[in-house]
Amino acid sequence: MNRKYKYGIVIAIIIIIAYLTIIPSSQYERIQIAGSTSVQPVAEALADAYMEKHPNVRINVQGGGSSLGISSVSQGITEIGTSSRDLTPQEKEGLIEYEIGKEGIVIAVNNNNNVTTLSTEQVRGIFNGAITNWDQVGGSNTQIHVVTREEGSGTRSSFENLIMDDTKIKSDAVVQSSTESVKQVVKQDPGAIGFVSLAHMSSDVTALKINGIGPSAQTVANGSYKLQTAFLFVVKGEPQGTVKDFIDFTLSPEGQAIVKSQNIVPVNM
User: Fold this and answer.
1) What is the SS3 assignment for 148?
2) Which of 84, 88, 188, 199 is a plausible cystine mate for 38, CB 3.0–4.6 Å?
3) Structural element, H or E, at residue 265
């Protein structure tokens, strides 16, 4: 399916949801948020906490991917877009970014895989197809199955910028539309490898060390784990009113404690 067509469908769904939630319109102030599926859980947690303090406000948080989030806020469809990648110079025009936290990108494998660490070059070789068997990197004689996110995913974009250099992810990689679906494929396939956000890691897959450093909140915060990206709230122009107050809450000690509780490294603590 054409990428722009897919974005159009998701934006249409967001508009419908916004319309359905606007009745009765005079009762609540409303904020529509959409974008990165990696940022979505922490955005939901922040929204829930804010609405508890402000019962006259309703905040609706949707996924759709970082590119969708940036596009929707740029077009004025949502008040806040979320992204787990840097904006391009073209995307930045007219938009303001707020970094709400830092997130590690984890290279995840099946729990039965006996490989525990890879170099950046080995990860690149696996994802571009130069390395095709786990025995080439110290593992068993098992075919490697690469799992990736869809184009438009902020996590994929950050992974490509950090790892792939001037090469591309192999064309026959299995494409998944969310971090959770990547984990499910890796969990079920002994030869699989994928990348997921640190906040979404769980014991059903194994995180590899990269260049000898394991991913954790501490190694992301001190910079020793290099595969990391910023979680962003994006708005069109200077935020006003309730939108500004929600962003201020997110960046306050209370909001940053919520960010930390979601296994994301806060920026203001």
Assistant:
1) strand
2) 84
3) strand 265-266
What is the CATH number that goes with domain 104-221? 3.40.190.10
CATH number of 3-102+230-266: 3.40.190.10
CA atoms of 238 and 165, how far apart (whole Å): 35
CB atoms within 10 A of CB 11: 18
Residue 23: per-residue pLDDT: 46
State yes or no: cis peptide before 24, omega within 30 of 0: yes
Residues in the chain where the model's pLDDT stays below 70: 1-26, 269
What residue ranges of the chain are covered by domains with CATH 3.40.190.10? 3-102+230-266, 104-221
Question: How much is the pTM?
Answer: 0.78
- Given a contact cutoff of 8 angstroms between Cβ atoms, the answer to whether 65 and 71 are in contact is no
pLDDT score for 68: 95
Distance of CA 184 to the CA centre of its chain: 17
